[in-house]
Amino acid sequence: MTEQVLPSWNQGPARQAILDHVRAATTPGAAFVEPADRIATFDNDGTLWVEQPLPPQFDFVFRAWGKEVKADPSLAERQPYKALVERDQGFFEGVATQEPEVVATLLEAFARSWAGTPPAEFDAQVREWTRTVRDPRFGVPYVELVYRPMLELFDLLRAHGFRVFVCSGGGRDFMRVFAEDTWGIPKENVIGTAAAYTWTGGRIVRSPEFLGGLDLGPGKPEHIFAHTGRLPAFAGGNADVDIEMLRSAAFALLVRHDDERREYAYTKGAEASLAAAEELGWTVLSMKSDWATLF
Amino acid sequence: MTEQVLPSWNQGPARQAILDHVRAATTPGAAFVEPADRIATFDNDGTLWVEQPLPPQFDFVFRAWGKEVKADPSLAERQPYKALVERDQGFFEGVATQEPEVVATLLEAFARSWAGTPPAEFDAQVREWTRTVRDPRFGVPYVELVYRPMLELFDLLRAHGFRVFVCSGGGRDFMRVFAEDTWGIPKENVIGTAAAYTWTGGRIVRSPEFLGGLDLGPGKPEHIFAHTGRLPAFAGGNADVDIEMLRSAAFALLVRHDDERREYAYTKGAEASLAAAEELGWTVLSMKSDWATLF
């Protein structure tokens, strides 16, 4: 494996560690991974695309809730609509720390907005958003803010027999709308927080309930095992909510956001994962030093 | 597509309908199916392997419950252990008709037997069973009672870009143990009734709860949509509990068990699906006339 692979990565310890691991996993020896066991899982927000100032799905959701508040101003008196109207970002950051009250309030609001929606209608809403809405700082649709080096890593892994999955705390059905075009990952390889569906009157309709809880923290290996029957041979993440998934993997890659010029520099929400990486010998990639090209 | 494909199938309307549909689905025209949408789903019991006198998983389960009753004879006074001791097959047939009390009693007993069991231990139990236990009539391990014509159909579908999934009311994790060796289907393409799992103390442990309900009847398209983000382009089943899945599919294939000599002849539990096949124009395959070889 030479410079032809991972072309957007700079020569350096992160790229080398990945190449070494992939070679070891696919060559007879102590670190060999049976082809059947080659499951690779990646977080989305902050691992595959920009998650600052808030993960892009919030933009999609806020637009829907904004319309609901406009139609019924009394909603503005209660959460999460109140936080939206007051631009209280701290409230929404409570998702990452899995504050039960915040989570319950959000899931209830998601149900209010989309329960009963047929998948085709939800898909159309997401497609319209990916097509028309632009990230304010970068001026491009959010789906263009996917890190090219990660897509190259998917190619490398697939070329070595890994099946690549995305496993995100974000909405499974939201991600599935653009997974194939944007990541080259089939819908069935997208794992995430998800509503239940019912077969009613000869069609699939979204239920108010969410099945299997949030796909964050311990929920990540739980969702991965339920979906694939395995724990990952390779996992990539960037935040404290990825720790359990990274611990469950044979090889763990942690994205460090340290590139203020090209993206953002922050460790908030990643303090524990950076400490775990040091303690457990995970490979940490510096966006600034390890990636020649971001998008 | 000539006689080289589906070699264990006799020339006839079922084989022809399958070949015609696969050609139409992969050739530009009105019935073309986009490669991304080529999801094929198959029931297991009675569709991929012999389900008489009871689906083989019951044999596995009964052996475990038999040991439990031996260790604690008081269990024999309550269900489902009572039905096991009294050889009351009718009680267990209540699963297929989804009698709520029977289902609840069984799920509770499954939890009693396997909650807290790490996956590796459960796998070892199933592997031991597949290796050592033989079907009384045929004298071979149950995994050798898989219909060869169906495995050839999987090959045909995969050769035309379909991703093949098994979607069964049986235990997802039970099937995953032998899915790869027996069907050539990766674990992640097995959908079924399933316990939840928790990530506890750095490992995955089976919970007492079952997530998403039984994968029978309406549960089949619900589980398929949740797992894959699509409804099937091709589906195969054999019983009334497959009706909703078959209705949700672009092409539906129904197995008719009419071969008393080589297998079994019965319509019990399939009356409504046979009627639906006639009404909706599904392809019905006769085991006796359409399959040259069974196993």
Automatic annotation (TrEMBL), chains A, B:
Acetylation in keyword set: no
Family annotation (CDD domains): HAD_like
Keyword annotations: Hydrolase
GO molecular function, one term: hydrolase activity
Cell wall biogenesis/degradation keyword on record: no
Gene3D superfamilies: HAD superfamily/HAD-like
Pfam (any one): HAD
Name under which the protein is recorded: HAD family hydrolase
Source taxonomy: Bacteria, Bacillati, Actinomycetota, Actinomycetes, Kitasatosporales
